[in-house]
Amino acid sequence: MYDFVRGPLVWVAFAVFFGGLVFQALRFFSLTRKRDRVFLPAGMQRRGGESAGPSRNWLRSLRFTIIGTHPVMTVVTSVFHVCLFVTPIFLLAHSILFYESWGIGIWSFSESTTEVLTIVFLACGVFFLLRRILLRRVRAITTAYDYIILFVTVAPFLSGFFAYHQWFDYKTMVIAHILTGELMLVVIPFTKLGHMLFFFLYRFLIGSEYSFGQGSRTW
Fold first, then answer.
1. Given this model, what pLDDT does residue 219 score?
2. DSSP alpha helices (H): ranges in 32-143?
3. pTM to 2 decimal places
4. ∠ Cα 199 65 150 (to 5°)
5. pLDDT (tens digit, 9 = 90+) per residue, 47-66?
6. CA separation, residue 108 to residues 90, 96, 97, 174 (Å)
7. What are 83-86's contacts with CB under 8 Å, separation 24+?
8. Which element (helix H / strand E) includes 218?
């Protein structure tokens, strides 16, 4: 079981992950097209002394994003995502696996640093869970799907934390850690976790009130 989930199943998970992202990116470009540029008369480009430069539009658009409306949520979300990407990449145990498998050595955090990042990540996960349960306006739009996605995201860190401290059966926790990590990779391109790709495509390429700029494509 351990050899299977650590060997062939890892390759399947990465194949689905990268293949799914490429498929979704190609689908995005097939469903959108380049936006026609509108050339305004010189007198309409500036009105009331305001500059229509892209930098000012970009800053103005931030007021309507989560950064301007919910700064606490912005901080927690940012920390959550930084820990989500940084911790597994620079984990010492993962670095050793990379070296044993492919002879590639990757710089890694100390174990104490990784533990702090994991605890911070799990605390952010608890914050998101309580927010969905306690805030009426958030609870009103929350479904079982949202709890499942949150669980899928947090489970690799929680099982890894348990395995590191050898809580419960160590081998079972390690297998659970690998399986939940592979599950997350597989579902990312096909669920709302796909925002790791679509966030950048939507915010920088699609022109809307939430865009970081005017965007060059439209639906």
1. 74
2. 42-45, 54-62, 66-69, 71-89, 92-102, 111-134, 136-139
3. 0.80
4. 55
5. 444 445 556 666 666 666 66
6. 4, 9, 12, 20
7. 83/117, 83/118, 83/120, 83/121, 83/124, 84/121, 84/153, 86/117
8. strand 217-218
